[in-house]
Specification:
Two copies of one chain form a homodimer.
Chain A: H1 8-26, E1 31-32, H2 34-41, H3 45-53, E2 65-66, H4 67-77, E3 84-89, H5 93-101, E4 109-116, E5 125-126, E6 129-133, H6 137-143, E7 148-151, H7 158-167, E8 172-175, E9 189-192, H8 195-206
Helix pairs in contact in A: 1-4, 2-3
Amino acid sequence: MKKNKVSNAVIRRLPRYYRHLDDLFRGGVVRISSNALSRSMGFTASQIRQDLSCFGEFGQQGYGYNVENLRKEVAEILGMNRGHSAVIVGTGNLGRALIQNFHFEKSGFALTAAFDVDPAIVGGQVGEVPVYHIDRLEEYLQQHPASVAVLTVPRGAAHSIADRLAGAGVRGIWNFTNTDLALPAPGPVVENVHFADSLRTLSYMITDVE
Amino acid sequence: MKKNKVSNAVIRRLPRYYRHLDDLFRGGVVRISSNALSRSMGFTASQIRQDLSCFGEFGQQGYGYNVENLRKEVAEILGMNRGHSAVIVGTGNLGRALIQNFHFEKSGFALTAAFDVDPAIVGGQVGEVPVYHIDRLEEYLQQHPASVAVLTVPRGAAHSIADRLAGAGVRGIWNFTNTDLALPAPGPVVENVHFADSLRTLSYMITDVE
């Protein structure tokens, strides 16, 4: 796998390939021509071939793609079968929404614990997930190393918690705090979720040219 | 503005330009060379020039970009100064998180109302936003046309509510339901928020090559 040479743009498209292939697979599609796949995804067939060629040989001239196989291969590339685990820090509205409604396991993650400071919730559970006091973060992560921490704390707490997570050795931070986390390298990979980018794209689409 | 000819990829990058320019502006940066902008954004200078050239002439040979002006121009292109309004349907955890923590106004939207079916919350407010019964959706939108509806209802209700929103004339649906909304054309533009894509990208980044 020529991982180091893969561009950011290709990486960002991989989850869309997976999502699309997963939909096709669940819809009972066994094989798909590269043209049909390109039409339904809105990429050109040559773009798809080029993207996938970063990771090996997929598809076959005159046959197209076997949906189940390609879905599995893309999942493999994305690391979705590696037994990754996650903890979530911050059980406010957004944290609760993710714990209760987001299917971590469909992305290959087991969500094992949540952390907060609120005495009303510490010691209990949200859904099936136990909530511990943030003071126990390092202790917990030492005993149960997590691949990723989901950061849903208030903005003001983002930097100090991120530093502690980096110190505790998590490899990735899924950052919902709308704050750029400047962590010293080599630290965790930070993936920022920017709701505003999405709304502003929609704004562009609905705005008439003057 | 050659809006019809602008590719999806360029459109998706525009909010990132805005966000970056906004950070620079707030940081007091008055002007930036195209090389410095490209380094800090991770795009090549020629990519940036090419992206912006879809919308007109920006920057100046030997001067670079005036941050405040370019930020304003990009905001204009994104339709952020058009007095857009939004309503939100669904005041569960995610809906509440958005109402209370997401700054709609920073993307040029006024959030005017929320809708739900829960008698415990209908008639009250979340933050500053009044919550009405979903039965009053069409009536409200007739009196207060909204540019965008934020869809944070449970998955099972997504299609029927989306149909009603389309019927009531909203121009965009910001869809958090993890369901593909197949609406008859010409209907609202749908912008899907796919949390899983983001987590799977992070998964890729933290996964070692085998």
